[in-house]
Amino acid sequence: MYKHPLWKGRITRLRIGFGNEKPGADIRIQAFFSAYDTRHNINNMNFARGSATCFWITGDVDYLRRNIDRIRTALKYAVDEHHVRTEKIVLTTWPGHDGLGSVKIDADGKRSIREGHGLSDNWWDILPFGYKDFYATVHLYDALLSIARLEEDIRAHPEWKVAGECPPLDPADLRHLAAEIRARGNEVFWNPATGRFVACIDSEGQAHDYGFVSPNLESVYFDFATPGHARSILDWVSGARLVDGDTARGGEIYRWIFAPLTTTRHNPDWWSWPNQGGGAWGSGVQDGGCVLGYSYYDLMARLKILGPDNAWARLKAILGWFIDVQAAGGYKEYYARRGGSLQGGNVGGNLGLTQEFWESAMVSQIMLNGFMGYKPEADGFALRPALPREWPELTIDRISLHGRTMTLTAAPDQISVTGLGGPDRPWRIRLPGRFRIVEYIQAGQVFKTDSAESSPGNEAIFEVDGRAAEIIRFKVDAETKKDY
Length: 484
Description:
The protein is α+β, with helices and mostly antiparallel strands. It folds into 3 domains: 39-210, Glycosyltransferase (Alpha/alpha barrel); 240-371, no CATH class; 375-481, Immunoglobulin-like. The chain has helices at residues 43-58, 61-81, 84-87, 134-156, 171-188, 213-221, 227-238, 295-305, 308-328, 331-336, 366-371, 478-481; strands spanning 91-92, 103-105, 111-113, 131-133, 190-191, 196-197, 200-201, 207-208, 290-291, 351-352, 374-377, 380-383, 394-401, 404-411, 414-418, 427-432, 435-442, 445-451, 459-464, 471-476. The strands form 6 sheets. It has a 6-stranded antiparallel sheet. Strands 1-4-7-8 form a 4-stranded antiparallel sheet. Strands 11-12-16-19 form a 4-stranded mixed sheet. Helix 2 (61-81) packs antiparallel against helix 4 (134-156), helix 6 (213-221) crosses helix 8 (295-305) and helix 8 (295-305) runs antiparallel to helix 9 (308-328). The termini are far apart. The mean pLDDT is 93.
C-alpha cells in the first residue's frame, strides 16, 4: 500500500466487494484483523545461500536446474531492495523497519508509543533491528560469496545444462560487491568505544549497542570482521577485555556454561513492542539470556582466532555441562534447581535450548566444520583440519556427499577417506599444502600412489578416483614436512 501514489500514511475506511452477480446474499463477518509488515530482510539471502549449500552436499544437478532462477532472483532482490549497490550495506527502508524502538522517552522520562515503528527483521524477532542493519549485512556478504562460487561452478560445467530464464549473475561482480560491503560495514557498524559491532543504526542516526554477542561472533565466522576487529570481539567475549558500562563482564558472560550470553548490556527500552522492556536483566532470551545453538559460532570463532586448543577447552566445558544435565534427568529438571527458565512453546524464559530452538543441533557441527575443516563442493570437498594438541587424530563417519556416505580420519601427517566411491569422474579434493602424496589402499595394501597437482597458495589439489580403492590416504612427504 505504501508504494501506491495515493497513499497518505493511514487507512481510515475499508470497502469490501464480493462480486456477487445477484443481490440478496447474506454475509456474516466474524472479525477484522489488522496486520503489520512481518517481512524479514534476511530471508532472501539465506534462501540463496542455503540452496547453494544444499546443492554442494547433494550434487543434485536437477535440483539446481529447477531452482537456479529462484536463487538468482532472491539474491538480486535482496541487493536491489536494500539499496546495497549505493549504500554498500543493507539499508532497509520498509515502513516500520527503521531501527527505532516502539517507545520514545522524552527529557523528563515520560514514555510514549511510537506508532508505526519498531518492527523486527530477523532471528531477533522482538528487537527492532532495521534500517542500517548490521546482522543482515553480514548475512548478505556471505550469500554474495556463496552464489559467486555457485555461478563459477555452473560456468565450469556446461554439461550440467543449468540455464534458467534469469541471466546468470557475474561472479566477479558479486565478489567485488562483497568486498565493498565488508570494507564499508567494518567502518559503519564498528563501535570503537566498546570494541565491537552495533546491532544497527536507526533512521534517526542512533546506533544500538547492547553487546550483541552472537551477531559479533557470526561476523568472525563469516570472515566479515577484519582481523583486528575479530580479535577485539574475541577478547571481549572471552573476558580478556572488559567493556565499561556492560551489565555482564568477564566470566559473567559464561554464567550458563553452555554458551555466552546473547547480550552483555541491559536493554530497558529498545524493543519492538511497547509492553516489552523494563524487565529484570537476564529474564529473557534476548536481554542477557542464553541460546545453546549460538555456541556454535563461539566455538568456530575461537577456533579461527584463538586456535584449536582454546576451542577444545570451551567445548570440554559444554560437554561437562551436558553430562550434568543428563544426570539430573534433562533440561527441565536441571534448571528447576538452578534458577534458569526454559523458553519455548509460547512460554517465556531466559534459556533457549528446546522446543523451537532447532539451532541447538548446530553445536555438534564444530567437529565436522571446525576441527575437521570439512567443506562440501561441486566436484568433491575441501579439508583443513585443525586438531587440538590433545588429539592424536579425529574420525567422523556417516558424512553424506553427493549420495555417498564416507568416513574421514585426520591426523597431523595423514588424512584417510573411506567409502568415497564415485561418479564417472574424478573427485577434486583440496587439502592443506603440506599434503603431497595420495595412496590407494585395498585389503590393507597400498597398490597405487600419486601426487598432488601444483596449486597457488598453501593448498594441495588432488584428482582421485573414489571407486579405485577401499581407502584413499593423503600423506605428508618427507621433503614437504620440513617446510611446516
